[in-house]
Amino acid sequence: MGESQAMVAEGYNASAATVESNIDSSQSVANVSLVNGTGPEGSLTAPAENGTATDNVPVTAPGAGHVDNAGSALSPEEERLWSIVRANSSEFNAWTALIEETERISQDNIAKIRKVYDAFLAEFPLCYGYWKKYADHEARVGAMDKVVEVYERAVQGVTYSVDIWLHYCVFAINTYGDPDTIRSLFERAVVYVGTDFLSSPLWDKYIEYEHMQQDWSRLAMIYTRILENPIQNLDRYFNNFKELAETRPLSELRSAEESATVAVASDASETALSESDGKADEGKSQADGTSEPSKLESVGSTDPEELKKYIGIREALYIKAKEFESKIIGFEMAIRRPYFHVRPLNVAELENWHNYLDFIESDGDFNKVVKLYERCLVACANYPEYWIRYVLSMGSSGSMDLADNALTRATQVFVKRQPEIHLFAARLKEQNGDIAGARAAFQLLHSEISPGLLEAVIKHANMEQRLGNVDDAFSVYEQVIAVEKGKDNSILLPLLYAQYSRFSYLVLRDAEKARKIIVEALDHVQPSKHFMEALIFFETILPPPRNIEYLDPLVENLIKPNVDTQNTASSTEREELSLIYIEFLGLFGDVESIKKAEDRHCKLFLPHRSRSELKKRSADEFLSSDRTKLAKTYNETAPAQPVSNAYPNAPAQWSGGYAAQPQAWPQPQAAPAQPQQWNPAYGQQQAAYGAYGGYPAGYAAPQAPTPVPQAAAYGAYPPQAYPAAATAPLAAPVQQPAAAPPQAYYNTYY
């Protein structure tokens, strides 16, 4: 057996029996084999380029700093495309254009082809179609060992793809003549994807191969294994099995174990019969010159009762699988794109994956849970919420190795540029006692992923304060503020100052230090509505007396339009700030300060509002009677609401508790009276700073990748392989409460 043939037969992965045993037993370290496709100790580990990351294999951005050593000069178009993907390795269209250009002008230069495919597949390891194209290039130049190497990397990079395993098995059939080698590969494949609802193409190829070999017992065993699982085309498989059983003798269909079992049962039956007949029957047999029926004759019996029993055992498996299929068929029919692509999935499909996972988790079969998560993460690889959910699910089941493996793949390969996953990683590592790992996650956010992300700064400082490192917590703010001060018109800087001041007062109870931070901020930032809102509330939490004389000119400068100053606040923001200040004075000001603020407000804003408000009031009165009539026609039945939390427009769709939550400010200290809640009517727009734990105005929350207009990917499933979703029984739309009006700074943030 040649080297490449041995690689196929032995594999880089664990054997089928080993992997299934690992899952069924203790869900321990061996579970990583199920997820990665990596085998036991001593087997070849997946290289970093194939996207299967481990804690000991750092994954760097492919293409970045790549040295051209392919042996020939690049064309101008190749140079242009390489420069694009080096600058941004997530540019999928540029990558595919680069591959096409390289293939067009360098068909015979396998070194250049290897270079571009290695770099692309390091960034997008789930594109099984490109693994197939890569292997075809190696086969074209006759490098069979390289073909096997590419396929082995492929099945480790996209282990739960039916298609890549099918391509690999077809290659083995066409290349090797040893049935054991080919069967070994098929067995590896069905361990991972044999229970996939869409695994029929792989099973069909396995059946076709064994039919060519005319190994009827193996063929019957394959049918038996298929009938245990609720997969597509189950009726066809059961009918084909019955046809096989009715056309071949049972002696050819039974496995060696089944034949031995039948022989033992036959011996026991004959022993009982001989004991009842006595010695007389034994003598008669000897006189007639006959002997006992052989075991082989018993095993080869074509008795209709034996055939019925043989089929009946498989029929029971089939019925049970069909029952489970009826429970999942709605979920499966709603999966319109089971393969990976950079284009975002629609809301209904994302919601369907969550509902499907909910159902399988409630069923309690750990094997099914792991495999469905891995299937989901092929299609939903670009969505951090599914990785987070997977990690939490594995952690709650005690499978920490699977949880760590999933988190590593998420943070190092698939969603490595999305801040949400790194914030989650930092939180999880801190909870698990890995403080160094948590700090590393925050530093990665500060330095590479999203420098200046307010949520990362807040959470990092809070962690250090929890650990008792108050100076380090202050240092987190000070370092980021120093960086932002060097930028022109930093949006983040006023928010950082306001948050730092608040943090200082709440941690140290040092009002002077907190006020000093605010005073320093005024020297470096242009006052804005959000900053002044924070400053006003800061005065509410400080001990009296309130510094109204200091606040009033700052508020006036912002709310009064002045062409001489760089006042960028909109009219709506200026009016809202004026109302907030008036309410603040109502709690802590005197009569004169309140009169001054109200007169100023009336002069600045009321003349511009009277006409629009009169129009609105007139329209409301006109429609009031019609609303009453319409309400009767609807019989008080509210129309269905759209599905809630429509990804990608919402930063957190899954209520797993990991998303950032608004926090509540403490009540003012040493106040003469308990302040009331700020009236939401005074502020009808949520402040950019008013979402503690959310993303600042200068940073967009993690969303699905930008849609990429292009033709279907090479690795796309053929449309006819999936049933039309029009017939799928979808879940009823989730009722969503009416959206609350945007709240003022004080009602949401503190």
Helix-strand blueprint:
Blueprint: H1 3-10, H2 16-25, H3 31-36, H4 76-87, H5 92-105, H6 110-123, H7 128-140, H8 144-157, H9 162-175, H10 179-193, H11 200-213, H12 216-227, H13 234-247, H14 250-253, H15 256-277, H16 279-288, H17 295-299, H18 304-333, H19 347-363, H20 366-379, H21 384-396, H22 400-414, H23 419-431, H24 435-449, H25 454-466, H26 470-485, H27 492-508, H28 511-524, H29 529-541, H30 548-559, H31 571-588, H32 591-633, H33 745-749
Helix pairs in contact: 1-8, 1-10, 2-10, 4-5, 5-6, 6-7, 7-8, 7-9, 9-10, 9-11, 10-11, 11-12, 12-13, 13-18, 19-20, 20-21, 21-22, 23-24, 25-26, 26-27, 27-28, 27-29, 29-30, 29-31, 30-31, 31-32
Task: Tell me what the structure shows.
With 750 residues, the protein is an all-alpha fold. It has helices at 3-10, 16-25, 31-36, 76-87, 92-105, 110-123, 128-140, 144-157, 162-175, 179-193, 200-213, 216-227, 234-247, 250-253, 256-277, 279-288, 295-299, 304-333, 347-363, 366-379, 384-396, 400-414, 419-431, 435-449, 454-466, 470-485, 492-508, 511-524, 529-541, 548-559, 571-588, 591-633, 745-749. It is elongated, with a radius of gyration of 35 Å.
- Low-pLDDT runs of 5+ residues are 9-69, 283-301, 629-750
Q: Averaged pLDDT, please?
A: 74
How would you sum up the major sheet? none
Structural class: mainly alpha
Q: Terminal Cα separation, in Å?
A: 71 Å
Percent strand equals under 5%
Helix residue percentage: 55-70%
Give the number of DSSP strands. Answer: 0
Gyration radius, rounded: 35 Å
Overall morphology: elongated
Count helical runs.
33
Organism: Brassica rapa subsp. trilocularis
Main location: nucleus
Keywords: mRNA processing, mRNA splicing, Nucleus, Repeat
Protein name: Suppressor of forked domain-containing protein
